TrEMBL record:
Gene3D superfamilies: P-loop containing nucleotide triphosphate hydrolases (3.40.50.300). It comes from the Bacteria. InterPro entries: ATPase_Atu1862_pred, HerA-like, HerA_central, P-loop_NTPase. The lineage of its organism: Bacteria, Pseudomonadati, Pseudomonadota, Alphaproteobacteria, Sphingomonadales. Keywords: ATP-binding, Nucleotide-binding. The keyword RNA-binding does not apply. Residues 15-83 form the Helicase HerA central domain. One of its GO terms (molecular function) is ATP binding. This is ATP-binding protein.
Amino acid sequence: MTVNVDMGTDPAGKTVPLDLEELLATRLLVQGNSGSGKSHLLRRLLERSAGHVQQVVIDPEGDFVTLAGAYGHVVIEAADHSEREVAKFATRAREHRASVVLSLEGLEAEGQMKCAAAFLNALFDAPREHWYPALVVVDEAQLFAPAGGGEVVEEVRRASLSAMTNLMCRGRKRGLAGVIATQRLAKLAKNVAAEASNFLMGRTFLDIDMARAADLLGMERRQAEAIRDLQRGHFLALGPAVSRRPLSIKIGPVQTSARSGSPKLTPLPTAPVADIKNLLLAPVEAMLPLGPPIRHVAPPEAVEAAIAAPPRPSVAPDLPERSADETDGIVADVLRALVEDEGDQQRAAAVLYQDFDVRCRMVGLPRPPLDLPAFTRRLACARAGIYDAPDEEWAQALAIADVLPDDMLGAFMLIARAAREGRPCPSEAEIARTYGTSSLGRVKRMLAYIEGRDLMVCRIDLAGKRSIALPHLGWTTEAAEAA
Ligand SMILES: Nc1ncnc2c1ncn2[C@@H]1O[C@H](COP(=O)(O)OP(=O)(O)O)[C@@H](O)[C@H]1O
Ligand SMILES: [Mg+2]
């Protein structure tokens, strides 16, 4: 008997079922530009299969934590735990067959990779008696299995890539079925992408991604042009679990309670959510020693092959040459648009960088004009309202701030800007917004941290107003109410 997951409708309005057991055996790759509807698609799949199979979601942006309410997933906020704890939670999730969301929100790129690697390795290393079938959904998979190097420490990249390679290449025997989504196929390690036999391709702008999608779908490039014009929520599907030939699907709505099909997979345990949660999240310190870690690494050849893969070919350079000024102008506009679009929902620079890359190319810059570290700095400036390329004085401010963690840069630059322009000291609420928090306590701790590094001096005058001086730069804000 089969469990069919109703994913949506074909152009004739007919339901398109996804065969869950087949999916467990053959894995799924979803690709589409930011906003094409990948996360929505994953959510549809998760909601519609929730009663039938254990689900594990690696969630870089905390998008899926809302599954907890309606479907009982246990949320693990990675930022609140050590790597060791996160690994232990994964082991317990295997043991208790609990559906979980590992939210990596709030971690920097490297932290996200380390944490995902620890978690995936522990899923993989579970003892044989716990090898139950589970969907392992990884959104923005290119973050964890990047095709190229250079943006994070090599050791971290290898660990994360190795864990993803294990999931996709060797997970099946252990019951783990990888479902991965990426906005940039060309940025996803080839060996990881190649292990999926099912594809859902959404709107794709860049030729290089489209070419790789066409290769995976076994389509002529010309035929594959169709995926450029797909609308949000529309995907081209192919693979043993969904359709033997490319089929256009409109993904249906999410948050519906109707569940189709009858379960063939063995029933999940029926323990109340609260119990499962307690089982999984019990403090790790209180437990007996964990025993030596078992480390399964992906076959060295596979990792080597992925690491040594030749650099991705560059797009044909028939784009107009831009002067440095023109490029600066475009970068400033793109940064402004990024910051305006994100509102108060700040995302990690590493996540936004992909979006930045695509936006730059869409307006005709052949390659991203900034690398990730430079982008991180410019993003911080943009969040402080400085969009143009840093002049000499801003460059000095940035150089001084080099000792600060990336997530404090924006707030520092906001203060630096007020100081340089001799304007009133920004309020704690303004600083909080730039820092991506609503907690004034966090703001106070951050200011104390920066002050502790001698980068600035806060002074409260007799009227209780605060001014901040940046002694290295000789700039000082006007005094203003702090609260
Ligand atoms: N099939 C769909 N039906 C209705 N709304 C959709 C559909 N797919 C995506 N959306 C909406 O479009 C927006 C972007 O989708 P999202 O899944 O977040 O894109 P991505 O993950 O590819 O960046 C979201 O607001 C989402 O709710
Ligand atoms: Mg998404």
